[in-house]
Amino acid sequence: MNWYAIAAIYKFEMARTRRTLMQSIASPVLSTSLYFVVFGSAIGSRITSVEGVSYGAFIIPGLIMLSLLMQSVSNASFGIYFPKFTGTIYEIHSAPVSFVEIVAGYVGAAATKSVIVGVIILATARLFVDYRIAHPLLMVAFLLLTAITFSLFGFIIGIWADNFEKLQVIPLLVITPLTFLGGSFYSIHMLPPLWQKITLLNPVVYLVSGFRWSFYDLADVGVGASLAAIAGFLVACLVAVGWIFRTGYKLKS
Amino acid sequence: MRNPAGCLPMTLLHTEASAPTAVDPVIVVKGLDKTYAGGFQALKPIDLTIRRGEIFALLGPNGAGKTTLISIICGIVNPGNGSITVDGHDVVRDFRATRSRIGLVPQELTTDAFETVWNTVSFSRGLFGLPPKPAHIEQVLRDLSLWDKRNNRIMTLSGGMKRRVMIAKALSHEPSVLFLDEPTAGVDVELRRDMWNLVRRLRDSGVTIILTTHYIEEAEDMADRVGVINKGELILVEQTATLMHKLGRKELTLQLHDPLAAVPASLSRYPLALSADGTELTYTYDTQAEHTGITALLGDLAAAGIRFRDISTRQNSLEEIFVDLVRSR
């Protein structure tokens, strides 16, 4: 294993975060704080509670998951797309690194950044509402698994994209709608019966549900189903990344 | 601060390699071909051996396949059929061993614009699996006159400085084989001179250098051996001196005492060209022929009553040989 290479890629990507601190950290924290103000305080004050949890506290896991997904995908996709765009990817290809090491470096850095954002949002939420974490270890596990899985997904998008528009298409037109419709701001039990069934096709429902369960013991679907869903998506992403490097898809001619 | 001696210390360079010998291959390419997904055949089956410690110049017109060949050896492009070994290691099966020995300076100026010089060169060393060695990075930067710029972002550097950064990145992991793909394209005279001095010093320390260039006079001056590639086919590999000797033609130019209106009929058997003003006769001859015909020509000129006041000869250049070779295909 080329540990030095993993460390070099990881540090390089983290240095980019430091250079773009406003965009990387401050921006998602600010926008999430605005969600708390609008949904938690303004609108949430008119909703007493959801299944015994105050609405402001109820939306915390969903808001963190929303940021986590968006940050993981955008960090990882940009991380690998940028060297493709500038041509510096030649150095990665010509270095004695395996695809496992490349993925570990880029995805590790992207996941680290999104976890940092998630933790900051969790800390920021304390300024607005009181909350508890019933299963801290599982909460961390969900946080890490989701960050890693969606960073892998972002990595795939970054390799697939051959222009900046494509880089934005999946996060904006797929991830964001799925997250908003995935129970971030409501329990799917609030939906009409037909929509409750349809919404189960949305993978984000399982992530938000599992994550919320780790906070309040409240879940739209069983926690086992949540873990299985994220594990399944993780395996699918790993298989896709393996195929990309084996075939050189969009990387090597 | 510029290194006044302009010397790359031996400590900086890979010293495992031995002196150049005719039987010590470092890169062996056997039957390598490459057809891209669109059906374009970039390389026809190629056999090539690069000797340890030599400077090998790969010449060819644009699109001939030079960069494809280099890119396959370095791992940037997937190989087609055939095999490549570096120090006996297969570039696909044992890519870690081969790539760790190779440094590559690509043709395009592709740099991490927002990074500092120091960070980007250090990044390259880590990427190649080596622990940090600030003393080595400092030496590389000093030798490339980049030390003063070490904390500058690359985007603030001139094109020539960026080219130096790319060389520094390629040297950061102390390679024993260095590929320079058009290293002097678009750089000023000073940098070209510095670069060739660096190449010589690297070669002297045992580094094998494979370069492509459009400045053929530089290849003639620098390279131990030359390979000519055209339309994906390696049409010639030869010692530079031998190539010049084998394919070099010479021209004998006579400055005439009295201008001629035309070449006399008695001299028609000689390949003579008369200048427009009639004051110069040029005779082209093959240095490898059994008889050059010079003695007979001079005798016949005297018999024809043609006197001359000066005489000079000129060997044709590698560039002219190259153009002839490529055209003949």
TrEMBL record, chain A:
It is a multi-pass membrane protein. It holds the Pfam family ABC2_membrane. PROSITE patterns: ABC_TM2. The chain crosses the membrane at residues 20-43, 55-82, 102-125, 137-161, 167-186, 221-245. GO terms for cellular component: ATP-binding cassette (ABC) transporter complex. Residues 19-248 form the ABC transmembrane type-2 domain. It is found in: Cell inner membrane; Membrane. Keywords: Cell membrane, Membrane, Transmembrane, Transmembrane helix, Transport. GO terms for molecular function: ABC-type transporter activity. Belongs to the ABC-2 integral membrane protein family. This is Transport permease protein. It comes from Frateuria terrea.
From TrEMBL, chain B:
It comes from the Bacteria. Residues 27-256 form the ABC transporter domain. The keyword Ribosomal protein does not apply. The keyword rRNA processing does not apply. Coiled coil: none annotated. GO terms for molecular function: ATP binding; ATP hydrolysis activity. InterPro entries: AAA+_ATPase, ABC_transporter-like_ATP-bd, ABC_transporter-like_CS, ABC_transporter_ATP-binding, P-loop_NTPase. Gene3D superfamilies: P-loop containing nucleotide triphosphate hydrolases (3.40.50.300). Keywords: ATP-binding, Nucleotide-binding, Transport. This is ABC-2 type transport system ATP-binding protein.
